[in-house]
Write a structure and sequence with these properties.
The protein is mainly alpha-helical. It has two domains: about 1-115, no CATH class; about 120-185, no CATH class. Helix content is about 75%, strand content about 0%. The longest helix has about 30 residues, at about 60-90. It is globular and about 55 Å long.
Length: about 200
């Protein structure tokens, strides 16, 4: 698919314009109502669907279908982020009137860091390393369970920050060390008593 330079520039311009409009529209700190959120969601979805129609018209049904398939997948995956955001806001007790600003700068920061570090380079880096951290997913699952229990006990007992950090740091450390031990190669194994030490020939 041959996309002219002006088309890329137009997409980038619309994207930056939407970021600017979103920022200006929410300069005043306030609680975002359901109606306001629904209107903004409708605008964003309409832009996404409209762009898909442009792709369909300009590049054919195949490219248009691929775009809409990717769009639906991204929207489905974005539902998980909503629960993560709610979890983080509850954990750190972020006031409702500040949540939009936190989300805006968080998403903007994610875009900037992706541009700086390169998402594909990071993928290949962690794809090679993730095979070694076989217990990391279990460690992360334990942390999520801990955070969930902490949220359930929020009205009864406020877990101290130092305790939360200790549990998270300990769980991650144990998971990483156990993974490295389980996946170490024979060359990385400790020297056995029968193995010759450097500078000494076996008798």
């Amino acid at each position: 698919m041959d996309v002219p330079l002006w088309a890329w520039l137009a997409v980038i311009a619309v994207f930056l314009a939407m970021l600017a409009i979103d920022l200006v529209a929410h300069l005043a700190v306030h609680v975002v109502s359901v109606r306001e959120a629904a209107i903004w969601s409708g605008v964003c979805v309409s832009l996404g669907l409209g762009f898909g129609l442009v792709v369909w018209w300009a590049f054919g049904a195949l490219s248009g279908g691929e775009y809409f398939a990717g769009y639906l997948i991204e929207k489905s995956l974005a539902v998980d982020n909503v629960f993560v955001f709610a979890l983080i806001f509850t954990y750190f007790a972020v006031p409702r009137e500040l949540q939009h600003r936190v989300l805006f700068y968080g998403v903007l920061g994610a875009l900037v860091f992706r541009a700086i570090f390169g998402l594909r380079a990071m993928y290949f880096l962690f794809a090679d390393l993730i095979d070694r951290f076989v217990y990391l997913k279990a460690g992360l699952a334990i942390i999520l369970v801990f955070v969930g229990v902490k949220m359930l006990l929020l009205d009864l007992w406020k877990v101290p920050i130092w305790l939360s950090l200790s549990v998270i740091a300990t769980t991650l450390t144990v998971a990483v060390l156990a993974s490295l031990r389980a996946t170490r190669t024979p060359d990385e194994s400790a020297v056995t008593p029968d193995s010759p030490t450097p500078g000494r020939t076996p008798s």
